[in-house]
Amino acid sequence: MNSNTLEAPLGMTAERKAVTDKFGQAPDSKWVIVARGIKREYDMGGEIVRALRGVDLAIGRNEYVAIMGPSGSGKSTLMNVIGCLDTPNAGEYWLNGQEVSKMSDDALARVRNKEIGFVFQTFNLLPRATALHNVELPLVYAGVSSDERKRRAKQALEKVQLDNRMDHRPNELSGGQRQRVAIARALVNDPSMLLADEPTGNLDSNTSEEIMRVFEGLANSGQTVVMVTHEPDIAQHARRVVVLRDGLMSTDERRDDFVARLGLTGEHVKVHEAETRL
Amino acid sequence: MSFFLAVALAFETIRVQKLKSFFTVIGVTIGVTFLIAVVSIVGGMSRYMQDDLVGKLFAVNSFNLRRQPNIQLGDVTEEERRGWQRRPDLKESDILPVAASLSPEDLWATESGGNLNVESQYARPRSTQCSTVSNDWFAIKKMTVQKGRLIAPQEYQLGTPVVVIGQDVADHFFPSLEPVGRTLRIQSIPYTVIGVAEKQGSMFGVSMDKFVIAPEKAPLNRWVNPHGVVNQMIIQGANETGMRNAMEAARAVMRGRHHLHPSQPDDFALETCDSALEFWNKLKGYLEIAGVALPTVGLVVGAIVIINIMLVAVAERTREIGIRKALGARRKDILRQFLVESATLSTFGAIIGVVLGIAFAKGLAAVSPLPAAIEVWSIFVGVGVGAGVGIIAGIYPASRAALLDPIAAMRQET
After folding, report:
1. β-strand partners of B197
2. What is the pTM of this model?
3. Which of B319, B320, B326 sits opposite A112 (nearest CB)?
4. Distance separating alpha carbons of residues A170 and A234, to the nearest angstrom
5. Are A90 and A37 in contact (CB under 8 A)?
6. How far apart are CA B140 and CA B234, in angstroms?
7. Which of B327, B335, B403 to mutate against chain A (most A CBs within 10 Å)?
8. Contact indicator for A109, B330 with CB cutoff of 8 Å
């Protein structure tokens, strides 16, 4: 794979470089995500769009990583690949010790169900179902019995302090509450990784802070969290920030380095301003 | 996802979209309504034919020896009809040899009849079905009298001018009078009424109580048949086998008397309740074809409506499908969800159809002489067909849903 010829992105540690270079080898259990030379191309009416051009990424257990990048950088595609919603054209993707890049659709569905907890920008709750039922949904497809589903769904809602809103439908909840229901749903099946796609994109800044505190709490309790965002002030909540540019990884650094490099103050920064500094 | 859960989900969808669901299933409902109604009516008529009509025309385990079939409602060609005309009559002289061939348990009687002019001094003359019969006729028909008595053996022997009459005849000729002991004139010859038969009821709205019965040697015999000719001989076996044996015995005697070569067909008829039912069975076959064809049209239309609505449902719920897939639903989970939804919807429609069909059949039975009998199997078939239509109609929309790409599906605006 020609990704071997690519330079390691700025800030990538030797250990990560080592694990992403070992093609065809199962990484050891400390790694949740190992992506090696991921390529993804789309045929847009005869024009080939190369969304990912050979991305290497290694994320260990208990890490809290933000994946950043301007629009068109390929971060959504990467998120789809990491989330097992899409498969790469080339490269390997190992999730929690299994190679998922060559799995069938139904096998991917199983992996999504067991290993990944999704949190979406638009919440993606079923509008006609109660909060409790929404949280139960992954367990339904995991084949968990009804009583056990209820018990675990309630537990997950308690974790996000929404146990008093269980019987409400999404339209009876505020944006922040909806996102917390979605987080409870993502956690209910004990996934290896929480994968959040612009989790605060539809929320005001106060609510965004509230949601970020929920992520913070989860990360502190040992949950692996991967968050895709284009907002630097959201990304700076993570402990590690990966920046994509033109389908390639451009930087991979610790939070402090990222904050220092961009001159962030920890306060809310204008998105455009920060993006220009990326 | 379990089947039970899928059904619960389907009911939830129906509950939320009541009106739409109603319009979705209306075709199936109408189809099943027709199916149940037609089957019930055909079944009712069938039961009626077998139990009442044929039971009234034919005594149990009995057959009629005749020149030609009496009930000739089937497909009879002109050729056959002419053939019957050329057949020899059944003669009085045939009766005793046939009777001699029967086993001692068998009962037999002769019967001749026709419409004759009947009058009494209390009412206007009226043409009435008059029959002359022999000894065991009442025993074979299991007919008793409500007033007076039956014809005595001596009266049969002597041909005494006495008659047993039906209820309607009694009502017409002897209004508000005691008919027993009074005189009835048949073709101007006076007869004494000795009994009024038990009410026989009606058949397809036609009264079965318009008859006059006299002994076979009574004077009216010469009005109903040429001398020495008998309309038919009724023979009753002790049981089914007895009847079959008696039929073969009678056939052998008749063929011998008519000097038939083994290669020649019978030139007389042995008519059983089966041959009478043959016509009905033929008609029932046609009715059943209609009873299947009509609902099928409804069900095909119903299926197309369901396909259409389910495609709309899939389009409307693309996002939901995307979410479910993202959360781990496999193709077969989505496929099952929509198949069960469409089958549940359709079965629901079919159940409404069953209820309406039963109501329709009962209603029709109540306001018309058509009888109805609800066949239990038709309810199962109706519901089963409903479920089947739902599944077949659901296949295409459900597989479209199952094959959706989760990323694209979740991007869909709702």
Report:
1. B145
2. 0.71
3. B326
4. 24
5. yes
6. 8
7. B327
8. yes
| A109 neighbourhood in chain B, CB within 8 Å | 325, 328-331
Please tell me the total number of residues recorded for chain A in this structure: 278
By 3-state DSSP, what share of chain A in percent is helix, strand and coil, each rounded to 5? 40, 25, 35
* Residue B159 at interface with chain A, using a CB cutoff of 8 Å: no
With cut-offs at 50, 70 and 90, classify the pLDDT of residue A149. very high
Cβ of A124 within 8 Å of Cβ of B319? The answer is yes
CA-based nearest residue to B398, from B348, B341, B345: B341
Q: State which H helix or E strand residue A185 sits in.
A: helix A175-187
Q: What is the ipTM of this complex?
A: 0.89
Among B322, B323, B407, beta carbon nearest to A86: B407
E strand residue ranges, B54-161: 62-66, 107-120, 123-133, 145-148
Q: Alpha-carbon distance A160 to A153, whole Å? A: 11
Query: What is the model's pLDDT at position B284?
Result: 82
The pLDDT of B71-77, averaged and rounded, is 65
Minimal Cα–Cα distance from A126 to chain B, Å? Answer: 6
What are φ and ψ of residue A146, in 5° steps? -60, -45
Which distant-in-sequence residues (6+ apart) come within 8 Å of B281 by Cβ?
A: none
Q: How many residues comprise chain B?
A: 414
Confidence of residue B201 (pLDDT cuts 50, 70, 90): confident
Angle at B162 between CA B158 and CA B163, to 5 degrees: 130
* Residues near A16 by beta carbon (within 8 Å), at least 6 away in sequence: A58, A252
d(CA A186, CA A182): 6
Q: CB–CB of A140 and B5 under 8 A?
A: yes
DSSP B218: S
Task: Over range A92-100, report the average pLDDT.
Answer: 92
* Cα-based angle B220, B224, B230 (whole degrees, multiple of 5): 110
| Confidence band of B72 (pLDDT split at 50, 70, 90) | low
Of A228, A232, A149, A241, the C-alpha closest to A195 is A228
Which residue in chain B has the smallest CA separation from A127? B320
Output the six-digit token pair for B289.
Answer: 């074809």
Torsion of the alpha carbons at B315, B319, B320 and B325, rounded to the nearest 10: 110
With the CA atoms of B260, B261, B267 and B268 taken in that order, what torsion angle do they form, in degrees rounded to the nearest 10? 60
Q: Rounded to an integer, what distance in angstroms lies between the CA atom of residue B21 and that of residue B15? A: 8
Q: Is the pLDDT of residue A272 over 50?
A: no
Give the Cβ contact number of residue A206 at 10 Å. Answer: 9
Average pLDDT, chain A: 88
Size of interface A-B (CB pairs under 8 A): 56
Q: What is the pLDDT of residues A51-90, one digit of tens each?
A: 999 999 999 999 999 999 888 899 989 999 999 999 999 9
Closest by CA to A237, choosing from A66, A60, A59, is A66
Tokens of A278: 């990326």
